[in-house]
Amino acid sequence: MRRRAKSMVSVLDGKGDLEKLKDLRTLKYEHQAKWFMNAYWNKELNFGKNEDKREALYIFTQNMMKYDPDGRDGCDLEQFKAHQFLEKNTEALTWTKMKSLLKGLGLEFDKRVSLTEFLLTHYNIKDYKYLVNAVQDVDESLQKRLDALKKKMDEAQDKADDAAEAKREADFAHKTQMEAHEEVQKILDEIKKFQSKLSKAAAKLQAIIDDESMSQVKRMKARHELNDLKSGARAKRKGLKDKDPDWLRTAKIKQKAAVRREKAATKVAATAAGHAAQAKYEADAALDAAQAAFEDLKNNSKGSGDGTIWWMGRQLQDMKKYMSSRDYARATRRVKKKIAAMKVSDE
Fold first, then answer.
1. Cβ atoms of 115 and 33 closer than 8 Å
2. Nearest-5° angle of CA 277, CA 278, CA 280?
3. Helices within the chain (DSSP H only)
4. pTM here?
5. Quick one: 212 exposed, middle or buried, by C-beta within 10 A (0-12, 13-18, 19+)?
6. Degrees (nearest 5) of the Cα angle 13, 305, 314?
7. Cα-based torsion angle of the residue sequence 285, 291, 296, 298 in order, rounded to the nearest 10 degrees
8. So what's the pLDDT on residue 111?
9. Tell me, what's the pLDDT at 139?
10. The domain 17-136: what is its CATH number?
């Protein structure tokens, strides 16, 4: 049965170290990672002085969340997903080796792997007693500020998710608009090709009719052929699509219908682009608020909860990358440019 993920705690539940470890592995991925980093900030792994190790732990956590259907709200992976995670993230640690190491720690193997279990085996931590009893070094005042920052970051993340969804909808609307435009252009090209062939054939026959050097028989024959060409009588008898006026009338009807579809798709795309821009604006505002709160906390909380504070700063970096204003603005400009270029007349 899947363990239910819990939010961050200051003290782990359990009468003994093993029970505390089992409680730790039920925290959400992010909270397991923060606990681990705080515990070893100045001890053993020394995360406080090793940026590469901090980054590696952060990436491990993000990657594990990607394999979990519950994402950031999960706490462990079932066996098949855990296999995939190990294959992609570490060459030295195999599934068999992990099982053996977990058994050595006294943990029952239940075909699920939490982030904590992976970290213990990956970093070859043989004594987890220090980990589960580590003081998180966060006083009540700092905890309140951390909670306030976490709330702002959650709001920023939600806004970023909303903006991403709005952009996906805008992209889909734009794709639909492009397809509608291509349909209009295809029909227009076919109509132009038809009319061009018809005009050339008519001009050729008219030249014979107007050429007095031609025999009367040839000129009369050309006149009949021209009448047939205009009426489409011969084309219908012979099944000549490229000279059949009925085909042209049908094509024009289809073209007008396609233009109406394109206009509707353009309107939807423009509306979706507007929603996406608004969602992006709101996400940026929420991110700016979270960034300001983080800077204030970082500058006034030296030596307390360092791993947690670093983690929040790293998350903010990800959000900024996720909501890159330059890339988004470029995409928005492309959409607007294409919308402006796709106003096709239905005359």
1. yes
2. 65
3. 17-24, 29-39, 51-67, 79-89, 95-104, 115-122, 129-133, 140-210, 216-231, 233-238, 245-299, 306-322, 325-341
4. 0.59
5. exposed
6. 110
7. 170
8. 80
9. 60
10. 1.10.238
Tokens describing residue 181: 């435009």
Angle between helical axes of 140-210 and 306-322 (0-180°, round to 10): 10
Q: Pick the closest to residue 262 from 331, 154, 187 (CA basis).
A: 187
User: Which residues are 114's β-sheet partners?
Assistant: 76
Q: How many Cα atoms within 13 Å fall on the side-chain side of residue 14?
A: 17
Please state, in angstroms and rounded to a whole number, the distance separating the CA atoms of residues 251 and 260.
Answer: 14
pLDDT tens by residue, 235-264: 566 555 666 677 778 888 888 888 898 888
Q: Which residues of the chain have pLDDT under 70?
A: 1-10, 92, 108-109, 135-140, 142, 229, 232-244, 301-304, 322-347
Q: Which residue has the tokens 């009719």?
A: 209
* Angle, helices 325-341/245-299, rounded to nearest 10 degrees: 160
What pLDDT does 347 receive? 39
CA separation for the pair 277, 270 (Å, rounded): 11
- The DSSP annotation for 287-308 comes to HHHHHHHHHHHHHT-TTSSHHH
CA angle (336 as vertex; 279, 326 as ends), nearest 5 = 55
Query: Is residue 76 helix, strand or coil?
Result: strand
Where exactly are the structural domains of the chain? 17-136, 148-341
Given a contact cutoff of 8 angstroms between Cβ atoms, the answer to whether 281 and 296 are in contact is no
Q: CA dist 64 to 29, 60, 119, 293, Å?
A: 8, 6, 11, 28
State the pairing for strand pair 76-78/112-114.
antiparallel
The predicted-structure confidence for 114-131, as pLDDT tens digits, reads as follows 999 899 989 988 888 889
- Residue 78: phi and psi, rounded to 5, are -75, 165
Contact of 214 with 208, CB cutoff 8 Å: yes
